[in-house]
Amino acid sequence: MAKGKYEYWLTPEGLLKLEGWARDGLTDEQIAQNIGISRSTLNAWKERYSDISDTLKRGKEVVDRKVENALLKRALGYTYNEDKYICVPMDPVEYSEKLAEYMNRYKLDHPEATDDELMLARESFPKVKQVLAERKVKEVVPDTTAQIFWLKNRKRETWADRQNIELSQPIDESIKEMEAYFEQQKESGSGPPVE
Predict the structure, then answer these.
(1) What pLDDT is attached to residue 182?
(2) Backbone angles phi, psi at 83, to 5 degrees
């Protein structure tokens, strides 16, 4: 490890970067690469400096919550609006008002603008506006894969693929009972014919 390289990452600025990378969903491997160190060095820093470890955990919690919320939303299904807009000409009064607002804002943002630049800005201002023409409510149906994933992780005891089955007696005793039963059937001749 480069002597003192970790020190920057313990500053408020360094910790903020680490938290942001974790919040953006970067893995420890990617974060280490961004810092310019190996993954094992980052792990050593996390063990040695609780500020680094706590910051990464805090950042990952945010993105983990977002993913959990997205998974739950997908599992339950949801609706959303699909909007269709069309362009229509503005009436002269509305156009004049909007153009005046735009030009005032342009002059504030560009105080050194020449008359030619102001004229170009005026001419580039649109004479149409977008209006909502149609709104459709769309439905995303619940996703069974998301539901299964959620339930297997949240209610493991009920939804796990494997379930523990408790036997009332040891398996060896059950085998002996079955062998005795078949032997009895064989002796009495009431069992299926044996070839």
Answers:
(1) 85
(2) -100, 140
| Residue 84 bridge partners (DSSP) | 134
Residue type, 122: R
- Name the residue type at position 65: R
Q: Which residues pair with 136 in a beta bridge?
A: 82
Q: Which amino acid is at 94?
A: E
Mean pLDDT by 10 residues, the chain (195 residues): 74 94 93 95 95 94 90 95 96 95 94 94 94 96 92 84 70 82 81 57
Task: Please say whether the dihedral angle defined by the alpha carbons of residues 31, 35, 39 and 45, taken in this order, is positive or negative.
Answer: negative
Instruction: Convert the chain into a string of H (helix), E (strand) and C (coil).
Output: CCCCHHHHHCCHHHHHHHHHHHHCCCCHHHHHHHHCCCHHHHHHHHHHCHHHHHHHHHHHHHHHHHHHHHHHHHHHCEEEEEEEEEEEECCHHHHHHHHHHHHHHHHHHCCCCCHHHHHHHHHHCCCEEEEEEEEEEEEECCCHHHHHHHHHHHCHHHHCCCCCCCCCCCHHHHHHHHHHHHHHHHHHCCCCCCC
Using the structure block, give the residue that is written with the tokens 């993954």.
39
Q: How far, in Å, CA of 59 to CA of 99, rounded?
A: 45
